[in-house]
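We modelled the chain as a single entity of 293 amino acids. Its sequence is:
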Amino acid sequence: MTEQADWTAEDTEDVVCCLCRVPGTLVHDVAPFGVVRCPQCELVFISPRLRPEALQRLYDDPRYFEGGVYGSAVSSAGGVHGSGVSSDESAPPAEGRLSPAMLLQRTWTAGRLRLIDRERGGPPVGGRLLEVGAGYGLFLAAARNAGWTTSGVELSRTGAEHAQDTLGLDVFCGQLEEAPLDPGFDAVCAWDTVEHVPDPLSFWRTVRSLVADDGVVLFSTPYISSLPARLLGTRWWTLKPTEHIWHFSPRTHALLLARAGLALTRVVRSPLASANAGRLDSLVCVARPIPGT
């Protein structure tokens, strides 16, 4: 991730809780940003936060994909999205060996594809899969190799161009609400994405309109009620107020999803599960459409 040490108050805006439409109460002052908690539903979010045009500059900077948990996988495998953890079996590191970061990504990808199959009761025979926050297209390419008919949405122009031009994937560059997508997806995935979106409630309502009534939604996020988050406070490595503008718990995930017509049906917390391997502060979640919504 690129470091931005020069953000000022002019780059920020105040926002309210996407569920309750009220301002939050300050939890941490990380000027020019604030970590706040909704006094009604307890959803944690960033306010003030970066304005949309400042966020776009952040995501368009190629350095955004460098470093962190992804290590050398950025340069060796064509890049990794900061808001989507993914892997491409056809893109080994250029130096001819696997980095620990790439091994983790492949573990996550394989575990998540198996989780989708378990939730759907079998392999993707003719199934359609949408990934929101597709990054450089690495998870989407693996899903395509597994037999899915794939589509993607990615805000970063750098990531979307790589997915389109290098991997030949169908990826729209922009917000989900703007994407020209046909409804009826059998699976919709959003790996480490919803914490970045401007309005999670609007995001999930759009996902509900796109997923088939018998489809499945899978996603991952950091969570504010994790042990590292509670112990470390402002030193929590996943706080990242420039880009992680919403911070969830299983409870607030369930509240948001229900308001959008989706039911949270499974939460994977264990860092021993392959879909969440090595992650002490991350959730992998499954949701299903609520009938009649």
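As a brief sanity check on the tokenised model: The helical segments are 52-60, 73-76, 100-120, 138-145, 157-165, 200-210, 227-232, 250-259. Residues 67-96 have pLDDT under 50 and may be disordered.
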